[in-house]
């Protein structure tokens, strides 16, 4: 039985992200270098550009690959903020230099990459042994003519992370199965529980949820279409899925149920450390961040319950730059890093849910529990959630940008008291300007 509780390697990830913005602006070798990788004196150097906690560097896999492949030297740099990372990646793709041999690609950027940068990335269609992924995962990084621009790492099935001690103080159930029944089948029930929490919580300074934007994301990503239709046309302003999510998230903000934060933005980490909110909608990859930032003092206070409805938020790919001087070696490394065994290893170490069907079916994933989150059976919870994710997920060129813009719009309601209609109007104007 696997156990997700050992965070001994998290310090490595923390150290790697120190100065991340400087890394993302200043890396890339000499001014004349395309990727910084190459072959010299019988040695192969492969460079990687990553972001966040993808588990590639933090879990010892790169050292293992180097040990098993003498003569290969891997240099990986990690940016803490994906948005900054992607802005830099776009600049470098346009310039044709300063890139890495292997580049991480977040799901919200996948459509833009496949539509506008397909010639800049190598095709994985000829790589053998890559038929183990969830069917919709590969389709997200494939072009219309069948070119596969990368291989999948993790996915983001959702649950709700909650503080048992705070639920007890509000007179609510603390058992994860009973908690899940409170909001089963409907995100409106989740918000209604928040109203009960606010009314009955015995204490001060604790909000029910961290951010209205987290609720918004959870709701929209449980449907096949969000911001674009399958013809590539923008539909966010007419899609009832988006309108309903905006309305409920605005309700939560206006009713004072949130801590007025944005996930992964300034204030959120201290909120975790200081216990200023009782719940957070949490895709699987978020658990490692929560456990790190909430710290040892809060171990066992957090638990994980099934979300009202299945949804996928996030997930990544690894692509190889077409101009890489070590393209074939980099493709081989990517195939190894995303193989079922390595995806299972990453899950066991930090909890990222595999995009590999074989890894999802493994005993190590199915039997995994989180020591930090009160021994929650995260393998079962997130594995079951993964099965509820719609088989078809329509991506658009500017999905990531639009998602970020909606988060900013909800923050206007939370932090500035802007009327929801005005906040929507401002958000729509920003989206039109951004996607132009």
Automatic annotation (TrEMBL):
Listed Pfam families: SBP_bac_8
Stretches assigned to coiled coil: none
Superkingdom in the source lineage: Bacteria
SUPFAM superfamilies from the UniProt entry: Periplasmic binding protein-like II
Name of the protein: Extracellular solute-binding protein
Organism: Streptomyces levis
Lineage: Bacteria, Bacillati, Actinomycetota, Actinomycetes, Kitasatosporales
